[in-house]
């Protein structure tokens, strides 16, 4: 059944949207949260296991101290209140990829309490997102449904379970209800998630790659007639694993709930699922309340004690935070606000910085990553960092241009060769013989031939009309297979028409 939708502009005009995000960040520890099983993305199924991660009788968990330190660092970055005493609890529910039939999480005594995060929107507006908690828990395994369409359970013949991910440490960052966003709710949600991604990467506690499942979010949405009204009934769309998916989930749910309420219906408190193919959410199960999970302190784990001295020690290890880093880099690179915002919106900040560190100029690095390489990434349907070219490769291309060995056309062809897997820029140049024609005699001959073939254009140039210069340059480029330097060609032409 297709949901009825209200136009977005009408929905946010008639209703006040309130949303919340529960963000799961997978930590980059070497071993799992409660056992020494090794963690490796993409490993053979069911090879990264111990009796603890399988929930076998008699096995006892031991807390990974590094995971606790990572969580404290994130709490500091989110301005959270760090608890001196925190406690793990059992959250009871059945999923086939959870071997114990309960999750070890934190309930009434989380490690990180209230905090906030200021997020910057595209137009420079800063919006404060209130944080309720950022607690530690372990992850479930992974189900693979075989025989259905696109790996879905509908129509599947059977399902397989990989427990490699079971027990991987997570931090769940739970916001308070986010009010006052209005029509900008999807934009704020996307900016918040990108800010979380940037922070955990800066802290070096997670790769935060949504396509790998390192980071995902549950999106809660409710509507009310007026900001003075009580909060409405919320839906919770589970495990959305892309920034655009999170933004589109909010956009869709606001339209769906608005149409439902406007028609006199009621919103169910339920879990839903985002379908990328149809760009819509679909209903799942009725949402459970906390009491349904029968939380109780895990009897196999003692309370976690964190001293003030230890928190202070970790605070001294905190790196530069993303907002401060962006301001510093913008000043160093000399970018205006729009140029810097374009780099950030393209998720190219790390790549541009690495390219500059490898020896390229900031303007050149920005040009490549936001121009040719961005178009290539869009065509391939991948992120910039997934392209088979490194910042060092881009910096090498820039050096070849600066040394007068490549022009813009040859540089683009060189980059294309690197993307095609032909090796480094130097390898591509050597393989194809890319090099600007530097022999003065050969270049002069090509210019003379082009001018002789185009006497009418030469007359216009002599009369002071420089617009047709491109035709002469084009003819020389054709004669030299694109290996002439356009500036050198222009210089030679000007010398000849001034005689």
Automatic annotation (TrEMBL):
Its EC number is 6.3.5.-. It comes from Bifidobacterium minimum. Belongs to the GatB/GatE family. GatB subfamily. Keywords: ATP-binding, Ligase, Nucleotide-binding, Protein biosynthesis, Transferase. Heterotrimer of A, B and C subunits. Allows the formation of correctly charged Asn-tRNA(Asn) or Gln-tRNA(Gln) through the transamidation of misacylated Asp-tRNA(Asn) or Glu-tRNA(Gln) in organisms which lack either or both of asparaginyl-tRNA or glutaminyl-tRNA synthetases. The reaction takes place in the presence of glutamine and ATP through an activated phospho-Asp-tRNA(Asn) or phospho-Glu-tRNA(Gln). InterPro entries: Asn/Gln-tRNA_amidoTrfase_suB/E, Asn/Gln-tRNA_Trfase_suB/E_cat, Asn/Gln_amidotransferase, Asn/Gln_tRNA_amidoTrase-B-like, GatB, GatB_Yqey_C_2, Gln-tRNA_amidoTrfase_suB_CS, Gln_synth/guanido_kin_cat_dom. GO terms for molecular function: asparaginyl-tRNA synthase (glutamine-hydrolyzing) activity; ATP binding; glutaminyl-tRNA synthase (glutamine-hydrolyzing) activity; transferase activity. It catalyses: L-aspartyl-tRNA(Asn) + L-glutamine + ATP + H2O = L-asparaginyl-tRNA(Asn) + L-glutamate + ADP + phosphate + 2 H(+); L-glutamyl-tRNA(Gln) + L-glutamine + ATP + H2O = L-glutaminyl-tRNA(Gln) + L-glutamate + ADP + phosphate + H(+). One of its GO terms (biological process) is translation. Residues 350-497 form the Asn/Gln amidotransferase domain. It comes from the Bacteria. PANTHER family: GLUTAMYL-TRNA GLN AMIDOTRANSFERASE SUBUNIT B MITOCHONDRIAL AND PROKARYOTIC PET112-RELATED, GLUTAMYL-TRNA(GLN) AMIDOTRANSFERASE SUBUNIT B, MITOCHONDRIAL. This is Aspartyl/glutamyl-tRNA(Asn/Gln) amidotransferase subunit B.
